[in-house]
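Same chain as my last thread, 273 residues:
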Amino acid sequence: MSENTLVIEPKKGFYNLELKELWKFRELLYFLVWRDIKVRYKQTFIGASWAIVQPFFTMVVFTIFFGKIAQIPSDNVPYPIFSYSGLILWTYFSSAVGNSSNSLVGSSNLISKVYFPRLIIPLSSAISAAVDYFIATSILVVMMFYYGVYPNYQIIYLPFILVLTFLSATGFGLWLSALNVKYRDVRFVLPFFIQLLMFLTPVIYPVSFIPEKYKWLLYLNPVGGLISAHRSLVIGQEVDLLYLLSSVIFSLLLIITGLAYFKKTESFFADII
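reply #2:
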């Protein structure tokens, strides 16, 4: 066998995550992230400003209908900041899950012709969605100055929440992207699931708004504690640690089981995609 011959064999075992190969193909990961960003705003009139327009006008609608008309409480915080501080993280999560779930099918030509770690594709979709979050955060900063709402020292823990949200979204994305290769129904079910999950997440209402006997349902939501903690850190309130802990556990379970299922089914992608 020639020294320049590359032998590709199926890997077995959950712990073989091919981290060395991910690093070896890091330039491909960068290329796919940049491709996703460019495709998203290609031939658009306002370009990346859509990352601000979507959560901002959603916040305006929520403020009118839920804050003004329905009089939903906002824990003594101006409702625009209350809703927007939850919306920007929720928008990142939903975008990352939606994009990564369709990423393998959308890259079918690449998968069937070229070898590389398939994990790169949903991973790049989850990373590229984070760009919109950081763009949308600029409006939140302006709003906080306008309303005179400022964070405290706990804001240093915000990156921890962002990492957990990334893990949760990536875990969901790995599950759904692998399932979507075999069952194309996933792309039809996912928008309904995401929409339903948003109303089960404290984005437009505080945790205190939920009656005590139903609060246990909130702890079953993998992203609810992250949204709540994100808002608390931004507006300088105490974080509900128990609620956050439930989301931490779910985030870790999602990424671990997602990786396990993805690695188990990865070898069949090129055959059935």
